[in-house]
Amino acid sequence: MPINRSAILCFRMLLFFCLPATAYAQSEPLTFIDATNMAGLGGIQHLLEQRFATTTEQTSGGIAVEDVNLDGYADFFVITGERSGGELWLNQQDGTFKQANHNGHIEAPDAATGPLFFYYNNDPLPDLFIGSANGAIPVLYLNMGNGNFSLVENTGLELYEGLSTTGATAIDFDRDGWEDLFLCHWNEPFTPFHFFRNQQGNGFSPYDTKLNFYNLFAPELDHGFTANFRDLNQNGFPDLLLSGDFGTTQLWINEGGQQFVPTDPAVFTDQNGMGAAVGDYDNDGDEDWFVTAIFDGDGVLEGNWGGSGNRLYRNEGKGKFMETPPHPSITQTGWGWAASFADFNHDGWLDLMVTNGWPRGEDSFKGDTSRLLINNHSGQFLPLPNFPPDTFQGRGIGILDVELDGDLDILIANNNGPLRLYKNQLNDDNWLRILPLQAGRTAHGALVILYTTSGVFQRQVGESSNYVSQNETVAHFGLPQATNIDSLIIQWPDGASSTYYQIETKTTNLLTQKKGQEYSTPPDFQVFPNPVRAGSLLHIQSDVFINDNIFIWSSSGQFIGSAMVIQRDNRLLTLQLPPAASLPLGEYYITFVLPERDNPFPPIKIIIE
After folding, report:
1. Span 450-470, mean pLDDT?
2. Which of 122, 362, 441, 502 has its CA 20 to 30 A from that of 26?
3. pTM to 2 decimals?
């Protein structure tokens, strides 16, 4: 059922007149520390052979963040260049990371760039795409569980050989339930290889021609850098927001998953669009668009680039964008790359993170710093003055909550430089994390709308790219102190919507589309004893192998914790349930990842007595 936008607007207006003037007051100063070494990440380095590096390779790198082993904590894959191509690092749930055994059996292609986690075969485990900056065939790895991956052969991406990848975005453009790919190219002849339709986990087919996606600009070169997707006109299908170099930023409207139709590109005035962030920065109920570009401070353009800087496009409704008045904090960050909206200080307003730098040309670009810009609630952003000075060649950004303490941390993947982790030092602030789930998978493309005593806020999950990088796919809300939650609506990718009540702040909630759905125990499972007491042992007899990723959920879909496997005897598992403090009396569900099954497996209901 479509969301009633008029009702949302009325709710916002009511809150505007009823809120106290201090509703958005921040409780403490926002600070970050460089926690790279403390987290065990001090040895990660992206390396290039500078004497032979091409311009495309100097734009390359990146990072993708996702919970790959389903333990509830964000992991990441980072491009490392000539050192090893790329590395998979697993969250140890204590603020540190450890490289996966045998690197998860992942081998990145030559000149690797633009990693992306997405669901290729529709099981609950996110799979991994890695592109190449020098024309090598992109690779696809199937997630086998427990941090192990397996190379997929004959993906259909072999058609891509000889083309560089400057970014990849997962998008179910026709809403058939399978995630497709959109791949960007830079400074190459325009080819019909951008949209790749997922053939239900049996490879990809190029789809540009069928979608009527073509080159809007002359000469016939492709300069796309970063693709994001949002349903701007609310017809149920995601539209394409494509940041492009040399004045080629463009917007395409998705008409029912059958074709894309371009809008007037003259609206977009950025001269060298590269990275992007999409989000409702002004809290008016629609998604706005920030595009990074180049600001040349001395006004002397030594190369073939523009110098006017980044652009912030405000959504006036239904995807009608208008350029906001230039402000130095927004436009003048240097040579911009990745960008991401996120509420870092938990005041209810989206802030903005931007990476910058270029190794050639004017010396000032070589020392460009990454910038964290704080939303001042009046349409402008101001630099956070004490953000750690990162003067490396910033490319990718990964936003995540490393320790599940409620605040957002920042990973920066530098080109020909070290990885950096900046930890957020907020304490005891108000927040909420929502993971919408469909068939055990994070519902990429879901829109989460939160109604509170401090306002109405919305976040989309997934279908985004910062520039060769991807955030943790979760709807994170920072909330002013003393905020109470009235309700929460999830608009699912299939067009349905669900409403949830009794959501508490400072919690992580995994919400299923069919709240409270009843599941029957499958015939090849025996769970006993059931009912069972909290803190005691639970046994599972199964004819199929179950790995150690076993999770417990409340009947309303809230994540409770993990069940520890303490003994394994053939097909009999013995689990240690959490204590009564975590499992009060009631109904719960346990979920599994079963590598031997092709389809997602239903949760099993248990009763705590």
Report:
1. 95
2. 502
3. 0.83
Q: pLDDT per residue over 239-286, tens digit each? A: 999 999 999 999 999 999 999 999 999 999 999 999 999 999 999 999
Closest listed residue to residue 395, CA positions, set 366, 370, 421: 370
Please check whether the domain covering 526-608 is classified as CATH 2.40.30.30: no
**Closest among 455, 459, 499, 314 to 12, alpha carbons compared:** 455
Q: Rounded to whole angstroms, how far apart are CA atoms 80 and 400?
A: 20
Same fold, 32-424 and 526-608: no
Q: Span 32-424: which CATH code?
A: 2.130.10.10
Compute CA distances 519 → 9, 135, 516, whole Å: 38, 48, 9
Which helix (DSSP H) or strand (DSSP E) does residue 606 occupy? strand 604-608
In terms of Cα–Cα distance, which of 286, 380, 398, 422 is closest to 342? 398
Give the up-direction half-sphere exposure of residue 91: CA atoms within 13 A in the CB hemisphere.
22
Preceding peptide of 383 cis, ω within 30°: no
Q: What is the pLDDT of residue 303?
A: 64
Extents of the domains making up the chain: 32-424, 431-512, 526-608
Per-residue CA distances from 416 to 53, 82, 84, 294, 506 (Å): 10, 10, 13, 20, 38
* 153-198 residue pLDDT tens: 999 999 888 999 989 999 999 999 999 999 999 989 999 999 999 9
Q: What is the pLDDT of residue 522?
A: 57
C-alpha distances out from residue 211 to 194, 254, 262, 491, Å: 10, 9, 11, 25
pLDDT of residue 9: 47
Distance between CA atoms of residues 386 and 346, nearest Å: 17
Report, as an integer, the average pLDDT of 539-565.
76
Question: Cα-flanking dihedrals φ and ψ of residue 15, to 5°?
Answer: -65, -35
Spatial distance between the Cα atoms of 256 and 242, rounded to a whole number of angstroms: 19
CA 24, CA 453: separation in Å to the nearest integer? 11
**Strand, helix or coil for residue 404:** coil
Distance CA 162, CA 159 (A): 9
Report d(CA 81, CA 344) in Å as an integer: 30
Q: How far is CA 258 from the centre of its chain?
A: 26
For 40, the token pair is: 């065990």
CA distance 455 to 480: 10
Q: Which residues contact 557 (CB under 8 A, 6 or more apart)?
A: 437, 509, 510, 511, 512, 515
Q: Is 574 helix (H, G, I), strand (E, B) or coil?
A: strand
